[in-house]
Amino acid sequence: MICEACGKAGRCVDPPTPAETQTLEHLPCDACDGAGCAACAMSGKLTLRGCPMLAIDSTTTNALRIAKFAKHGVLPEPGALMDQREIDLHAIDLVWAEQGRCQADLFESDHE
Fold first, then answer.
1. Model-level pTM?
2. Are 109 and 60 within one domain?
3. Domain span holding position 77
């Protein structure tokens, strides 16, 4: 898994240099949506040229953190589900849906 040590540390512990890149086979290139272009060297796949944590803003980081805690039964606000802010519930749903989509894509690519 890419950046496993970084995920555990909560920060980038071994950033890639401009000379070394990692291609994420399961994610289409943002520039061409998988069609192949100069940005992805015609592979159609996303290529990391730096720490991916630098591309994530604080709002996204907070949504990921809230979803992680919710997965373990800890909600952001005291009380039950109906006591939670709508925006927090939406963030949890969004993160879980995207994680599910990514897992399905990985499963599909592993079984092709």
1. 0.60
2. yes
3. 56-112
